[in-house]
Design goal:
Layout lengths: L2 H7 L8 H15 L11 H8 L3 H13 L3 E4 L3 E4 L4 H8 L7 H17 L1 H7 L2 H11 L13 H14 L3 H5 L4 H10 L15 H8 L4 H11 L1 H9 L1
Antiparallel strand pairs: 1-2
Helix pairs in contact: 2-4, 3-4, 6-11, 7-13, 8-9, 8-12, 9-11, 12-13
Length: about 240
């Protein structure tokens, strides 16, 4: 075997820390044994003995899992599996002062896709009270044009109401992510990007379409409402 062949044959060193390895082993253990929320996991001392590591390592690994919302401590019961609150995890992570522009841009794109896709839920679950609340939000809206820019508070108020109307708890919690996303769009200059804008569907027109109770029409209306945002993103 020559030198080049020998170099290729050398296995890579696992550089993960001991805590990383224990964390992954615990995740694997939960999955293989099909543990469900409420199921009790072994105590620290038992895990340490089984894995051959210190209780300090076990404790740090468990703390990571608690931070992720995967386990929790129950009085008189011990540590149990927990269904993670996805929205809470996202909220903790969505600090605009920490996230870079690429991540904020990704979330902005995700917001556009979600709002078009959730049209069926909005139409299917909208109550008359919801529609009246939307009408109150848009009552002072100016006539739409190709270049009108709405202020952030107004955007959040209207689109936040749509998320609420879906009845989907995870989607409803996405409202809390709207502020940093909109702020990114404005502060990054994306919202002021120069290109040939198209006439879009206004918030007021969206409410009128919603009253028809036609999910297909509302989906198309939402896509046209977001048209110029899509164009900004795709041309950036």
């Amino acid at each position: 075997m020559n030198t080049e062949e020998l170099k290729i044959a050398i296995p890579a060193i696992d550089t993960r820390s001991l805590v990383d390895k224990v964390e992954m082993n615990l995740m694997d253990l939960f999955t293989k044994h099909h543990l469900k929320p409420g199921d009790v996991i072994p105590r620290e001392v038992e895990l340490a003995a089984a894995m051959g590591v210190s209780r300090t390592v076990i404790r740090e690994s468990l703390n990571r899992l608690k931070t992720m919302g995967l386990i929790e401590s129950k009085k008189h019961k011990g540590t149990v599996i927990k269904s993670p609150d996805i929205s809470l995890i996202l909220q903790k992570s969505m600090n605009p002062k920490i996230l870079d522009d690429n991540t904020l841009r990704d979330v902005f794109e995700m917001r556009l896709v979600i709002e078009v896709g959730m049209s069926d839920l909005v139409v299917g679950r909208a109550t008359e009270k919801d529609i009246q609340e939307l009408k109150a939000i848009v009552k002072d809206e100016d006539s739409p044009s190709s270049d009108t820019l709405f202020d952030v508070d107004y955007e959040i108020k209207f689109h936040g109401k749509l998320y609420e109307m879906t009845g989907n708890e995870t989607l409803k919690s996405f409202q809390s992510l709207l502020l940093p996303v909109f702020n990114y769009a404005y502060s990054s200059g994306l919202i002021n990007k120069q290109f040939e804008t198209h006439h879009y569907v206004s918030h007021k027109e969206l409410v009128e379409i919603l009253e028809t109770r036609d999910p297909g029409k509302f989906r198309k209306g939402m896509r046209r409402h977001l048209e110029n945002h899509f164009r900004r993103i795709l041309m950036a």
